TrEMBL record:
This is SET1B methyltransferase. GO terms for biological process: methylation. The gene is Setd1b. Residues 96-213 form the SET domain. It comes from Pelecanoides urinatrix. InterPro entries: COMPASS_Set1_N-SET (IPR024657), Post-SET_dom (IPR003616), Set1-like (IPR044570), SET_dom (IPR001214), SET_dom_sf (IPR046341), SET_SETD1A/B (IPR037841).
């Protein structure tokens, strides 16, 4: 075992010449920096330029996945147009700048802190989804607790959104007989949502209002919106 290892030589093409005929039998030997740089540069260039057949295989797969995702999102919107999907995504990731403060109509109100163009989503009406039976029970309980206003918004015949104790700034929007916004029910991923749209251009510091559209009842609720065509009552 104590024989001297033969000196390793290089061939004319730069490759290491193995005297014993097997690279494993000669053990580890250091690579020159010049040879290492050549190898690294060649491997980087190869990595930056993938084979053409790989590009042909991956691009259609990515495009098919995008189309499938787009179809899934569009199909989740039942009874609404494609623009609702785009606007709801904009509302989710880019919320309007709004504030609530004292209103000349009634108590608190919601005001715009930036210009809002016509036919734009302003804010979603957020709260707890409850049934009609629960809504009747809560309304009586709120009266017993001394809560003057209950913020309930009907979605359909069976569902009501209660934002009295769990909601966002949308519950502060006051009624007006000549409103600058309107409410619309849209469906997102099989769930109905109420979104407030702008009817017209809304200036900075202008109060956001919509028509409550209360059902006609014998006991009237006075309207204090002060518009020219005010009906006098909310119901």
């Amino acid at each position: 075992t104590s024989f001297s290892t033969p000196k390793k030589k290089k061939r004319d093409d730069g490759m290491r010449e193995h005297v014993t005929g097997c690279a494993r039998s000669e053990g580890y030997y250091k690579i020159d920096k010049k040879d290492k740089l050549k190898y690294l540069n060649n491997s980087r260039a190869f990595a930056e330029e993938p084979p053409a057949d790989t590009q042909v295989r991956t691009c259609p797969l990515l495009a098919a996945r995008r189309r499938s995702e787009q179809r899934r999102l569009l199909s989740s919107f039942t009874g609404s147009c494609d623009s609702d999907l785009l606007k709801f995504n904009q509302l989710k990731f880019r919320k309007k700048k709004l504030k609530f403060c004292k209103s000349h109509i009634h108590d608190w109100g919601l005001f715009a802190m930036e210009p809002i163009a016509a036919d734009e989503m302003v804010i979603e009406y957020v709260g707890q989804n409850i049934r009609q039976v629960i809504a009747d029970m809560r309304e009586k309980r709120y009266e017993d607790e001394g809560i003057g206003s209950s913020y309930m918004f009907r979605v359909d015949h069976d569902t009501i959104i209660d934002a009295t104790k769990c909601g966002n700034f949308a519950r502060f929007i006051n009624h007006s007989c000549n409103p600058n916004c309107y409410a619309k029910v849209i469906t997102v991923e099989s769930q109905k949502k109420i979104v407030i749209y702008s009817k017209q251009h809304i200036n900075v510091n202008e109060e956001i209002t919509y028509d409550y559209k209360f059902p006609i009842e014998d006991v009237k609720i006075p309207c204090l919106c002060g518009s020219e065509n005010c009906r006098g009552t909310l119901n």
